[in-house]
Amino acid sequence: MFGACCCRSESNLVCNSLCCVLVVVNISVQLRMTSVTPLRLVSRLFKPVSPVRTITLAYVTKQCDKGSTETYNSSYEPDIGNLYTEEHLSLRKTVRKIIDKDINPHVDEWEAAGEFPIRELFKKLGNAGILGVNMPQEFGGLGLDWSYSLAVAEELGYINCGSIPMAIGVQTEMSTQALAKFGSDELRKQFLAPAVAGDMIASIGVSELSAGSDVAAIKTQAVRKGDDYVINGSKMWITNGLKADWMCMLANTGSGPVHKNKSLIIVPLNTKGIERVKIDKLGMDCSDTAQIFFEDVRVPISYCIGEENHGFLYQMQQFQLERLFASGSLIIGLETIIKETAEYCSQRKAFGYPLINNQIIHYTLAELQTEVEALRALTYRAVARYIRGEDVTYLASMCKLKVGRLARQVTDSCLQYWGGMGYTKEVKVSRMYRDFRLVSIGGGADEVMLGIICKYMETLPTVK
Amino acid sequence: MSLRVLVGVKRVIDYAVKVRVKPDKTGVVTDGVKHSMNPFDEIAIEEAVRMKEKNIVKEIIAVSCGPQQCQETIRTALAMGADRGIHVEVAGKEYEAMQPFHVSKILAKLAQEEKVDIVLVGKQAIDDDCNQTGQMTAALLDWSQACFASKVEKTDGELTVTREIDGGLEVIKVKLPAVITSDLRLNEPRYATLPNIMKAKKKPMAKKTAADLGVDLTPRHEVLSVEDPPVREAGIKVETVEDLVGKLKQSGVI
User: What range(s) does the Acyl-CoA dehydrogenase/oxidase C-terminal domain occupy (chain A) (predicted)?
Assistant: First the structure.
């Protein structure tokens, strides 16, 4: 979640070309299903302006021309009310059991200590199959579609802090997805299978000191020397960074344009020439977040995921699940805060009445709960489309934007009603206030999400 | 040698639930309350599954006595690795009055019918804390017993069991067939994975009644009243040591 996000400004052009790559896939889906995509809806509201979009829009426009007056066929929408089957609920039950027994009783202690026993916990989760829900079965995963991962993410919202769901999400959705999809069998055997089993801790290395949201601007270099890459540079905001066994690193490997010169490389973090420094943060207390320096670090060329210089594209795809995970994993946490605030306000009396009797309070909580349900609906819809093979960049970016903003709104509003207690470390709302503040920043800041949404709305000014 | 194991799994109110006494004091509130497998029985199942993984055991049969919902408890055991289940349906008044003695008779009868070598149960259930079923089953069958096991090893034709006793550990050898009850430190039960939960749905589960097994469920005793523990009374603050001593003398404590 601490990873960076997407390309902006100067990278605009190439990012559009990425959209094209993804959209080509999308078109084939459209043809097969002969129906409407979100793009089409958007195109009704916004006329195409960018020439790069024409590849996509040509098709959409054609369809629109054919029947521009036809009403939107709602039956095309996935039935998000039926996203969860009995199997999903069984999986959630297992997750809940681990949370109630092995996580929540210790969270306060771990938060105070500034770390949690990640190895032990990941082994337990790995044994229960939770770390490889959507991973291929031949590498120990359950091989299920992403709706099951959403079910897990949602249930992780019962954990009484933000750090642990984040650590799990980094392992399952952010560091290992590109490896699972594009890595060689040898590489997957060596690094993915142990990550799925909970024997290895993974991290994702994209952001740097001088490049966060602007991924294309990263400076870390991996230069070929014989059979090795020699890596020099540094990575910033690395969740699980101190304890991780390997990093899925984005590094410059070529001399071409900034989106075609990067590769994703697996870097074992016990390699010579690596130094890790812990970063002190506002919240996410028990999560270890590190800055990591690389000086003449050698890894075999075979540790490159997929094709060399395709790393930027792979990473952009990997970001989608990070965004969906972020929104999925916060829903229940936000609901819990609203619920606990209502309970507290029912007991706390001021001027002779329970606080909750103030209309401003019960109305505000109702308003917030409505927003959370809307976020849930948006998330389910994005996931339902994702598992059907669609490109959900547009919806996933909205999920990420909304969850970050809503998390700030819910925790801040609720904290106010807890009064002085809300400002102490005794209550959960203050921890969530600190922890969830990250969501608007990590994994692509709100502003970056807005930029992506604008691109889909065709309202982003082109850079001269 | 491959053994057959019968494991008793009891459905109890979940350990995390705050138990409430019914207003008429006939028992505790169970409607709409979360239930799970008795944690000690979970340990028993885990031990059986580990023995199977070590090829000591050939078949694991999970049995639960109680209402329809006990089948969920049996499914949990099947998801953890038991091979098949037996649900002995006991409902309503009979279930409310059922005691360890009745369950022991049912387990003993099933052990003979199924020709098992080991009966493995939790040392006690967390709802009634009786700690009787294993011992009585061994007595009814006239088998060896090893209660409060914290380690079970197979040595040819026998089991070497480490027992948790007051002030230490006792290592005993028991001949088969035997009844073993699990203590807390025997193992740490696994969480069922989704594929195993799914597989568990297809595993066979037989349904029986106490009458089928020829067990009479007539209660041997009657519950007169179930009460909440007394509520702790509020204390008072005193200003000085003299006040304190005075109050303590006054209340007859010193």
Answer: 309-455
CB-based burial, A220-238: b 16+ in 10 Å, e otherwise: bebeeeeebbbbbbbbbbb
> Is B247 among the domain residues?
no
**Which residues of A are annotated as catalytic?**
322
CA nearest to A87, candidates B202, B198, B76: B198
Residue B115 corresponds to which tokens in the numbers above? 């020709």
- ipTM score: 0.73
Identify the pLDDT of residue A52. Answer: 37
Bridge partners, residue A224, by sequence: A229
Mean pLDDT of the A437-454 span: 94
Mutate to test the interface with A, among B72, B73, B194, B197 (most CBs of A within 10 A): B194
B191:A98 CB<8 A? yes
Sign (positive/negative) of CA torsion A238, A243, A248, A254? positive
Considering only CB atoms, B198 lies closest to which of A87, A97, A98, namely A87
**Domain range for B129:** 3-226
CB contact under 8 A, B191 and A144: no
**Is residue B7, in this structure, part of any structural domain at all?**
yes
pLDDT of residue A25: 35
Task: Decide if B121 is inside a domain.
Answer: yes
**How high is the pLDDT of residue A55?**
34
CATH number at residue B19: 3.40.50.620
CB atoms A90 and B191 under 8 Å? no
**pLDDT tens-place string over residues A20-62:** 333 333 333 333 333 334 443 333 344 333 333 333 333 333 3
3-state secondary structure at position B159: strand
Q: Parallel, antiparallel, or unpaired for β A274-278 and A349-350?
A: unpaired
Number of domains in chain B: 1
Q: Residue B66 falls within a domain, yes or no?
A: yes
- What 3-state class would DSSP assign to B117? coil
H/E stretch holding A164 reads: helix A163-169
Cis peptide leading into residue A194 (ω within 30°)? no
A149: closest CA among A127, A174, A112? A174
Whether the CB-CB separation of A317 and A178 falls below 8 Å is answered with yes
Contact assessment for residue B120 and residue B44, using Cβ atoms and an 8 Å cutoff: yes
Which residues from A are below 8 Å from B81, CB to CB?
A: none
- pLDDT for A209-227, tens place per residue? 988 888 889 999 999 999 9
Q: What pLDDT does A75 receive? A: 56
DSSP state of A51: G
Number of residues in chain B: 254
Residues A18, A448: Cα–Cα separation, whole Å: 16
Q: How does pLDDT run across B144-183, given as a tens digit for each residue?
A: 999 999 999 988 889 999 999 998 999 999 999 999 999 9
Q: How far is CA A67 from CA A27, A48, A63, A252, B223, in A?
A: 18, 18, 7, 47, 76
Beta-strand ranges (E) seen in chain B are: 3-8, 11-13, 35-37, 57-66, 84-89, 118-122, 144-155, 158-165, 168-175, 178-182, 205-209
